[in-house]
Amino acid sequence: MTDLTPSDARHAPEPVRERGRGAPKGQQTRAAILDAALNLAAQMGIEGLSIGALAEVTGMSKSGVFAHFGSREELQISVIREYHARFEDEVFHPAIRQPRGLPRLRALFENWVAKVATEIDSGCIYISGAVEFDDRPGPVRDALAGMVVTWHGSLVRAIRMAIEMGHLRTDADPMQMQFEIHGLILALHHDARFLRSVGAIGRASVAFERVIQYYAQGAANPLPAPPVPPAAGATSPAASV
Amino acid sequence: MTDLTPSDARHAPEPVRERGRGAPKGQQTRAAILDAALNLAAQMGIEGLSIGALAEVTGMSKSGVFAHFGSREELQISVIREYHARFEDEVFHPAIRQPRGLPRLRALFENWVAKVATEIDSGCIYISGAVEFDDRPGPVRDALAGMVVTWHGSLVRAIRMAIEMGHLRTDADPMQMQFEIHGLILALHHDARFLRSVGAIGRASVAFERVIQYYAQGAANPLPAPPVPPAAGATSPAASV
After folding, report:
1. pLDDT at residue number B90
2. Which residue from A156, B63, B123, B239 has the least number of CB within 10 angstroms?
3. How far apart are CA B125 and CA B123, in angstroms?
């Protein structure tokens, strides 16, 4: 069994993420443009990204932006890769420092919820992008779908490990569990962002524990429910989102 | 306990849905324009709807379309109302002919799944619209959110009735159940439409029965699982979507 791998090689982010001191000036500029592009994509959608719009918000010339990205499509794909890299930094990497099995799976979910909670005002590029590109085949859709599938694969691997550790039943279906957990995140994003409804984070957390409880019943080595409430107050059912 | 009501009065569709023989010519034309507008919205999003675009696809003059809708915003809201009316015809009305309680709740879910399954190539205006309008306050967003909230309210009422009938536990939380069921539909739409993944309908159905099973445990008057497979082959786990 391999460990969790953050990305398939095919979908690996480009190695261009050094920022700040020490990074060559060109890379610093590119990182600054990507920052602006991520903000723009959150507001306008990935389809709202263009060399011209980005030049306007960064105060750069079109040719300056063009020098870094070459085409609108390349810009869009770079933004998706950057979002993916940040998603991994915030959701995936902290979670794989948790022990294998249920603690790691729970951390993946809690970090994901925390990420969506920070995005209530900006939106999740994965979720919004899926709707934007579900009927637009092409390299941008493929890049986005590749990142989403990679992330789903990471979850499925974490679930498999929890089965191997005996934290979940051997007959648990990892793809089915991943589907159910993803549904909770989508419902959270919908209710918190579109409906502005109170209590969505709490509902997602309650449902997640119920999913775990179901698939842990009769496991060889079940773990108790988490001994302390999750560190992020945001995942408490009492939270106001 | 009131029976299920298809719409809050506030959000009731306008009474303009007579089509075909017998309806005045103006209403027939309006219905034909709305048909075209729904198709256009499915492809381009609600924001893709304009008097000009609709004139182009219907072969009418802009002033002809304008005579029926008056403004782009009115057109968009009319399309949302029309979608809602059709959604009720396909999902809600057949379900309320089922016995109160779990049979009706199950029918609501199965009809909803069947509706999403027919929309894999066109997209669901509720789901796509939520992402389109989650950061665009105004009358169109309000109309859309009103319809979605009305529909969620119908589900919550069906769940409450199932509790009253003793089919579900008295401590089941209807809002929590609705959240979980909605999540399954969102995951189905995402996986089937964006990822084109096989088996999403089956996963949604399996998960729904698990949700029901959980909330039915220890109920006063639990029902057996459905005696025959649902009529729609589309909801079978073996289905290819």
Report:
1. 97
2. B63
3. 6
Taking the CA of residue A195 and the nearest CA in chain B, the distance in Å comes to 7
CATH architecture, domain defined by A9-240: Orthogonal Bundle (1.10)
Token digits of residue A40: 């723009």
Dig out the tokens for B15 from the structure: 């009474």
In 3D space, the residue among A168, A1, A86 whose CA is nearest the CA of residue A94 turns out to be A86
Residue with tokens 């994965």: A126
Q: Do A130 and B184 touch (CB under 8 A)?
A: no
Whole-angstrom Cα distance, residue B193 to residue B55? 29
Least confident range from A91-95, B12-16, B77-81: namely B12-16
Residues in chain B whose Cβ is within 8 Å of chain A: 43, 121, 123, 127-128, 130-135, 145, 148-149, 175-176, 179-180, 182-187, 190-191, 193-195, 199-200, 203-204, 206-207, 210, 214
Q: How many CB atoms lie under 10 A from the CB of residue A95?
A: 23
Mutation target vs A (from B180, B195, B210, B241; most A CBs, 10 A cutoff): B180
Neighbour tally for B214: CB within 10 Å? 17
Q: A169-220: per-residue pLDDT in tens? A: 999 999 999 999 999 999 999 999 999 998 999 999 999 999 999 999 999 9
Give the C-alpha separation, A23 to A106, whole Å.
35
Are the Cβ atoms of A187 and B183 closer than 8 angstroms?
Answer: yes
Q: Are B174 and B38 in contact (CB under 8 A)?
A: no
End-to-end CA distance of chain A: 38
Across the range B154-175, mean pLDDT stands at 98
Rounded CA separation A195/B130 (Å): 8
Name, in order, each residue with C-beta under 8 angstroms of A33's C-beta and a sequence gap of 6 or more: A54, A58, A60, A65, A68, A69
Model-level pTM? 0.85
Domain boundaries, chain A: 9-240
